[in-house]
Amino acid sequence: MKISTKGRYALRMLLDLAEHRNTGFIALKDIARRQGISKKYLEQIVPLLNRSNYLLTNRGFQGGYQLAMSPDKYTVGDILRITEGSLAPVACLDHETNMCERQGECATLPVWQGLYAVITDYLDNITLQDILDQQAEKAGNEYII
Fold first, then answer.
1. What is d(CA 34, CA 126) in angstroms, rounded to the nearest whole number?
2. pLDDT tens digits, the chain, 145 residues: what are they?
3. To 5 degrees, how large is the angle CA 120–CA 125–CA 130?
4. Taking the model in full, what pTM does it have?
5. What's the Cα-to-Cα distance from 57 to each of 9, 23, 130, rounded to whole Å?
6. H or E stretch including 17?
7. What are the DSSP calls for 52-84, one per residue?
C-alpha cells in the first residue's frame, strides 16, 4: 500500500492549520508557502476536506481556512480514508462485506485481514494533536550549547 501525495499533503495541510489554529482563518497561499506545496494542489484537496466537514471556510479579504474541530478529533486514518479511499491492502477488504468468491477457501485472506487490522489500528490511534505534541517534545529536546 502506498499513500499518494494527495493523502500526504492533506495531512500536512491539516497539521499546518492545527499548528496555527490560534491565528484565525489561514489563507491557502500561506499554507502552500510554509509546506512547500503548490496552492493549485491544495485547492484540489480542500473540497474533499470540506465535504467531510473537516474545515471551516471564510471568504473575502480575511478569508481562509480553519479546522472545524480540535486537533485531537482528527485521526490520520480518517484523513487518509477521505483522500485515499480505502486503506485495505487488497481489494477484497475494500468493503465491509467481502464479496470475493474465493473467501471461503482463500489461504491468504487471514494475512491480509491481519495487515489491515494493524494498519487501521495504528492510523486510527494517531491524531493531529499527537503529532503536534510529538513535534513539541522533539523541539524541546534539542539543546544547543
1. 23
2. 789 999 999 999 999 999 999 999 999 999 999 999 999 999 999 999 999 999 999 988 888 999 999 999 999 999 999 999 989 998 888 877 777 778 788 899 999 999 999 999 999 999 999 999 999 888 777 666 5
3. 140
4. 0.88
5. 18, 14, 24
6. helix 5-19
7. TT-EEEE-STT-EEEESS-GGG-BHHHHHHHHH
